[in-house]
Design goal:
This protein is α+β, with helices and mostly antiparallel strands and about 325 residues long. It contains twelve helices and six strands. Helix content is about 45%, strand content about 5%.
Length: about 325
């Protein structure tokens, strides 16, 4: 008895994409094979998967996902150039298929979606750009309270408008020089793709990775006068939600810098006090005491001195 053998789909010509869907498992079960074709079929299917071929439904899903990432046309052009497709800045089926092939050749899940892992690998190759928030449903989801806290924190860092624009350009947000919710969400997405804590705040670690000075352009007066540094410390503490518990008043040790108007004590949540300690440490203070993290005296780390477990003391 003769078996009918359906010819295998013809491979696309070199340099051209095939839009023909791969046969489904159910379709394959209804086909008859001789010994040679039966051995070849699984190999052909494995090669298709490894080359990043997607079904129509997978392509549509990936197009939807990528459009929701909030990337600009310029960012997509960079990604398209990296994955080897027409760099028109538009997200369509051809771009998705090119991304899938690129993913397959770089050991990533070949789904055509430019998620954090794919974006990180593209960025490492110098061809892509970090995503902005753009309101996309697939960006990093910060809650309203987190966004508000990050906006307040970033504004309290004292970045100049020029430095804010530099940050915005790097994270893929409109460069208007103002920290707002959209910029915070874009920063959070950028942080995720660079392995940083995802909170939307431009703290020391994020600022370092972005290549900007904490405080931006001298607004955080690392090399300024003691008076400038203390003024910044006060405004920064308030901006991140701490309360100033002592300035020149109160009872302190003899010869305390408080009596010279060169010190403040601040208090609040433990996480905010840790944040304040680290931020002040970067400004090379004369004194900085917070027992859970240590202490600084005359510009040198000396460890915890006791008596500063519930507040942070800083002097310049």
């Amino acid at each position: 008895m003769l078996h009918t053998v359906e010819p295998a789909p013809r491979a696309p010509a070199p340099g051209r994409e095939s839009d023909a869907p791969s046969p489904s498992p159910s379709a394959l079960r209804g086909m008859s094979f001789d010994a040679g074709s039966a051995a070849l079929a699984p190999v052909q299917m494995n090669v298709a998967a490894a080359s990043g071929q997607l079904t129509g439904a997978q392509v549509s899903s990936a197009v939807r996902y990528n459009k929701g990432r909030g990337l600009t046309h310029a960012q997509w052009r960079g990604i398209q150039a990296q994955v080897g497709t027409a760099a028109d800045g538009l997200v369509g089926p051809n771009t998705v298929r090119a991304v899938a092939r690129w993913q397959a050749s770089h050991g990533l899940t070949a789904d055509g979606k430019v998620g954090p892992a794919t974006l990180g690998k593209i960025n490492a190759g110098g061809g892509g750009a970090a995503p902005g928030a753009g309101g996309g449903s697939h960006g990093v989801a910060l809650g309203p309270a987190q966004v508000t806290a990050a906006v307040r924190y970033n504004k309290g860092r004292g970045f100049s408008a020029a430095t804010v624009r530099t940050i915005q350009q790097q994270v893929g947000s409109p460069a208007d020089g103002v920290f707002g919710p959209n910029t915070v969400r874009a920063i959070a997405t950028w942080q995720r793709s660079h392995g940083l804590e995802v909170d939307g705040k431009v703290g020391p670690a994020t600022a370092g990775k972005l290549g900007v000075k904490a405080g931006g352009g001298g607004a955080q007066p690392v090399g300024g006068s003691n008076s400038q540094k203390l003024s910044y410390a006060k405004s920064h503490a308030t901006a991140i939600g701490l309360r100033i518990t002592s300035t020149t008043g109160g009872k302190h040790a003899p010869n305390s810098y408080h009596y010279q108007g060169r010190a403040i004590d601040v208090a609040g949540s433990a996480s905010k006090m840790r944040q304040f300690y680290h931020d002040m440490h970067a400004m090379h203070p004369t004194e900085l005491f917070y027992d859970p993290l240590g202490g600084v005296k005359n510009g040198k780390d000396i460890g915890a001195i006791g008596g500063h477990g519930d507040h942070v003391h800083v002097a310049f």
